[in-house]
Amino acid sequence: MGLRFLFVRSPARNMKMISAHVKEIHGFQYFTGNHPEIRSQNRSKRRPVEFGNKVWASSLRLIGHLQKAPFELRERRVLEIGCGWGLLGVYLAKVFDCEVTCSDFDDNVLPIVELHAQLNKVTVQTQKASFLDLSQESLDGYDIILGAEVCYSEAAAVELMGLIEKAVHDRVKDILIVDPGRPDFEDCCQWAQGQFHAKVHELPGTANGKVTKLLHIRGGAL
Ligand SMILES: C[S@@+](CC[C@H](N)C(=O)[O-])C[C@H]1O[C@@H](n2cnc3c(N)ncnc32)[C@H](O)[C@@H]1O
């Protein structure tokens, strides 16, 4: 057996190709990197500068979890942080009629979020903001904050923990961060479990042989 078989990516469950540039998962559509507009942006000066250049596998795993409606999702006010192409936010707007803001400190990703909103015939707000930029007052407007693969460095983890602290002391009910288990994410999970009502779940399936972990923090300090 060649190495090719060991490292093959396991396709997300229930994902199907709709056309050469569009995939569908759980009733929601998203573009591949081959979509002409995305490809041309990725080759221009407007290309994403900080890893927001593709759909990261954990976001698809989290969509698989959310489609089971593990807690109240309908018509919630949602903030997606480090949104990249905005799949989580656009999915929740489409399937659960959520009122969504997709935010990222790299504004080059925001036109791609708009493309996904148009593809799925929903409206989402977009916002250029770092985790640090998000004030306690602005977080007060949300029921749910979620992000995929946003805790990949010490700097990101420190900013993320600051944001979580502001959010749980406010009215945000659920914070969900999903990741394939990077060390900085593991540190963040350990910290959150010592501070808040926080649990870490393993989501079904693997991506590139890695288990996807979900940190779920419920509002209100211990
Ligand atoms: C690995 S990508 C993941 C993108 C998307 N969540 C996904 O799963 O496809 C990380 C994203 O987080 C954004 N990001 C990283 N650190 C950030 C910060 N401190 N504040 C806001 N956005 C950040 C990056 O610009 C990038 O779009």
Structure write-up:
- It is a single chain.
- Helix content is 33%, strand content 27%.
- The chain has 222 residues and is α/β, with parallel strands linked by helices.
- The protein has one domain: Rossmann fold (3-Layer(aba) Sandwich).
- The strands form 2 sheets. It has a 7-stranded mixed beta sheet, with helices on both faces. The protein has a 3-stranded antiparallel beta sheet with strand order 1-2-3.
- Strand 2 (22-25) and strand 3 form a beta hairpin.
- The longest helix has 15 residues, at 154-168.
Q: Could you name the key traits of this structure?
A:
single chain, 222 residues, alpha/beta, Rossmann fold, 7-stranded mixed sheet, 3-stranded antiparallel sheet, 8 helices, 27% strand, disordered N terminus, binds S-adenosylmethionine
Short précis:
This protein is of the alpha/beta class and 222 residues long. 33% of the residues lie in helices and 27% in strands.
Topology:
Blueprint (H helix, E strand, L loop, with lengths): L2 H4 L9 E4 L2 E4 L2 E4 L4 H7 L14 H10 L10 E4 L6 H10 L2 E6 L5 H10 L5 E4 L7 H4 L4 E5 L5 H15 L5 E6 L3 H13 E12 L2 E12 L1
Parallel strand pairs: 4-5, 4-7, 5-6, 7-8
Antiparallel strand pairs: 1-2, 2-3, 8-10, 9-10
The structure holds S-adenosylmethionine.
